[in-house]
Specification:
Strand order of the largest sheet: 2-1-3-4-7-8
Largest sheet: 6 strands, mixed
Helix content: 25-40%
Distance between the termini: 36 Å
Oligomer: single chain
Structural class: alpha/beta
Low-confidence stretches: 1-5
Number of strands: 8
Strand content: 15-25%
Number of domains: 1
Mean pLDDT: 83
Length: 165
């Protein structure tokens, strides 16, 4: 009997709630690169942000600038105590050739530390903003999380080494 040495969860057991990728119309060619990807049903960017939150999915788009604005407004609406963490954003290049080259490098996860790659469910739980460049590199940033998520006692416990990253 082969022993499974791969950790089931990297960041936190809440990774199991991740729904996969939600692909915007301008990035629909990327659907075939991901096992857990569907095309967004919503017709506008704010609707896609809401759909991604409802379905616990990471948004995939080539239109990063507009989505950044809508995501920040959704997560921390002005004059509203509600705070909603999303499951991240993946911005990919417009050019088909660059897109295909870059997507191959991140298909199974992100190479962010000198250790194992951070698989997509963990990256999504961390609510990462990943921008794939034309040369296949990934710029990675974290969206500001809700204060209750970061609370030391009642918040979401993040496993090492991801808790300091």
């Amino acid at each position: 009997m082969k022993k499974d040495t791969k950790k089931r969860f990297q960041v936190n057991e809440l990774e199991a709630d991740w729904g996969g990728f939600l692909v915007d119309a301008d990035a629909v060619a990327s659907l075939r690169f991901f096992d857990r990807a569907i095309k967004a049903a919503a017709q506008n960017d704010p609707g896609i942000v809401r759909e991604a939150w409802d379905q616990r999915r990471t948004i995939v788009t080539s239109n990063g600038r507009d989505f950044m604005r809508y995501i920040q407004e959704f997560q921390n609406p002005p004059n509203n105590p509600a705070c909603r963490d999303l499951w991240g954003l993946l911005v990919i290049p417009n050019a088909q050739l660059a897109r295909e080259k870059g997507l191959q490098t991140i298909r199974r996860g992100l190479h962010v530390l000198q250790r194992e790659p951070l698989r997509w469910p963990g990256a999504a739980l961390l609510n990462l903003y990943v921008r794939l460049t034309a040369d296949g590199r990934a710029g990675i940033h974290r969206f500001k999380r809700c204060p209750f998520s970061e609370h030391p006692e009642r918040g979401i416990h993040i496993n090492e080494p991801w808790n300091t990253w």
